[in-house]
Amino acid sequence: MKQQSNLSRLLSIAGKHKYLTYASWVFAAISALLALLPYYYIWLMMKEVLEVAPNFGQSQGLKQNGWMALLFAVIAVLFYIAGLMCSHLGAFRIATNLRIQVMEHIVKLPLGFVERFGSGKLRKIVNESSAATETYLAHQLPDRAVAIATPCGLLVLLFVFDWRLGILSLVPVVLGFLVMMSMTGKKMQERMKEYQDALDDMSNEAVEYVRGIPIVKTFGQTIFSFKKFKNSIDRYQKWVIAYTKELRTPMLFYTATINGVFVFLIAGTLLFTRNGVTDEFVLNIIFYIIITPIIAVTLTKIMFQSENAMIVNDALERIDSVLQLNPLEETSKVQSPKDSSVELSNINFSYDGNKKVLQDISLSISAGQKVAFIGASGGGKTTLANIISRFFDPQSGTVKIGGVDVKNIAKEELMNTVSFVFQNSHLIKASIFENVQMGKPDATREEVIEALRNAQCMDIIEKLPQGIDTVIGTKGVYLSGGEQQRIAIARVMLKNAPIIILDEATAFADPDNELKVQLAFSRLSKGKTVIMIAHRLSTVTGVDKIFVIKNGVIVENGTNQELMEKKGLFCQMWNDYQTSVQWKVQKEGI
Asked: Which end of the chain is least crowded, N or C, by CB within 10 Å?
């Protein structure tokens, strides 16, 4: 029933193309039945040979029956090709619609969803899970029609010529089905889920490892320094080896059984010919020896169809794991912010109901004010910024921008109100112009150039072969981390949002790039409300207010001077920072 519901679901998103899927089943079934007819003509040819032997020149129907066998074989192939063409057209449409459905839902989810879900895992669901349905519909369903039609036609052929040999031919079928059931039951379905989980885990960790390759090369580390990636490979290896060993014995019996039909036929031949051999029996036994290998092929197809059905079921469950995530709550009472002020009241937040990351956070940032969030890594600074920009919604408390609850601000307007500059900004494989224009899709070329100039990017543009039309990532054109950051700042400048959030935006910049990034920030922040997340305390001394966050709680807040006078956590952090800045490697005497 669940299998049918999955099939019905897939066909429901096919539109009119579902009729092509239906047609593919009909063509495939006709092909399977037609493919059995050549065996009948081969039997007629053998019968005539035995009747006229040794005077083979007296044969009259050999040529005609041979051509008929070839004709039906060709027609069967043509029907099967027609079925595959129909099934592929329907499958491509269904896979496309499924991808569109998933992607349309993803864009409605909180922006922090991708980070939490894992980009590698998400990519695998969107691409590979939908591709699994495509393979199922394009190949497995037509083969299922063949697997159903072939046994029906075989039953007729097996019992028409010699019902005793027909029964013997079916014995390995029954035994093969019994062994197959032990490999394709509910336990196998659970195993298939574990297998896909292991693949997802390894894929996700592989993406993260590739992103960290610069660090590996810089510090001379090995793959073993990335324990999560190595552990995911080890878990996959351990699972696959254990699973293979578990199926080794039943697969051995299955293969021996379905390919051992000749054992039963030989035993039957010895039994049925105790009183002598007739020409008719010789003809029939030769025919059964020729046709019975189809049984092994058909059973194997059925087994792999069961496996692929479980793969599709698992793929749809993974797609549902994305579709079942709730999008951001929207209201019909849409309001617009009055200014660029930010106010948080009693914010509590945790990921997946685990330990609280933010606890009873309340703060107020006036329009045009520049503030900084500082604290140890993992304290909740970035999460707090994500809450403000509504990458996530808190479990309790309210976030207001311009005096309006962010839940009452239209999504598009909120995105135009808040801009985020990440510590490691990524650019898409497109031209510099297109990367910057993403901040304001209707911007003119002159506006883009002005944003690049204000972001201190003209030295980057001048060295590129096609200037702002140079496509990043092609023909050896790559930018450093600091240069990418300046391009990202140009995009934010073009967007011209009233609230700017800077998340460790100079973390990966070299000294020369950092100076230019700081100049770009000074232009970017004019007249804006700026929220900085920083570890370098020297970059926050001039802000209007500093919020010190520890374990998801604001423990101190005030100006740089006020916090230094308190002699609290900020003062301790400042002293530690100054010590680290002044530390120098002492040259030992020779």
From this structure: C
At CB < 8 A and 24+ separation, what contacts does 255-260 make? Answer: 257/172, 257/175, 257/176, 257/179, 258/172, 258/173, 258/176, 258/295, 258/296, 258/299, 258/300, 259/296, 260/172
Cα separation, 401 vs 539, in Å, equals 25
Contacts of 1 by beta carbon, 8 Å cutoff, 6+ apart: none
Q: Please give the Cα distance from 40 to 69 (Å, whole number).
A: 8
C-alpha 169 chain-centroid distance: 45
Q: Which residue has the tokens 């910024």?
A: 385
- Shortest CA distance to 418 belongs to which of 390, 399, 392, 382? 390
Has this prediction a pTM greater than 0.85?
Answer: no
Q: At 284, which helix (H) or strand (E)?
A: helix 279-291
The first and second tokens of residue 464, run together, are 């590129």
Q: What is the DSSP letter of 153?
A: H
The C-alpha atoms of residue 460 and residue 384 are separated, in whole angstroms, by: 33
Q: Phi, psi at residue 499, to the nearest 5°?
A: -120, 125
Q: Tell me, rounded to whole angstroms, the distance of Cα 410 from its chain centroid.
A: 29
DSSP state of 339: S
Look up residue 128 and give its DSSP letter: I
Pairing status of strand 529-533 against strand 545-550: unpaired
Q: Which residue type occupies 138?
A: A
Predicted confidence band of residue 2 (pLDDT cuts 50, 70, 90): very low
Residue from 484, 541, 477 nearest 507 by CA: 484
For residue 192, give the H/E element and its range.
helix 186-211
Task: Give the span between the Cα atoms of 518 and 534, in whole angstroms.
Answer: 13
In tens, the pLDDT along 168-205 reads: 777 777 777 777 776 666 666 677 677 777 777 777 77
Which residues does residue 499 pair with via DSSP β-bridges, in sequence order?
Answer: 418, 529
Helices marked H in 420-510 — which ranges? 432-437, 445-454, 458-463, 481-495
- Residue 283 CB: number of other CB atoms within 10 A? 18
Structure-token pair, residue 229 = 């990636």
Dist CA 514 CA 510 (whole Å):
6
Which residue intervals of 397-524 are DSSP H helices?
Answer: 411-417, 432-437, 445-454, 458-463, 481-495, 511-524
In the block, which residue shows the tokens 């691409």? Answer: 127
Neighbours of 351 (CB within 10 A): 12
Distance CA 321, CA 92 (A): 22
Contact yes or no for 419/492 (Cβ under 8 A)? yes
In terms of C-beta density within 10 A (0-12 exposed, 13-18 middle, 19 or more buried), how is residue 434 classed? middle
Highest-confidence range of 127-131, 198-202, 379-383, by mean pLDDT? 379-383
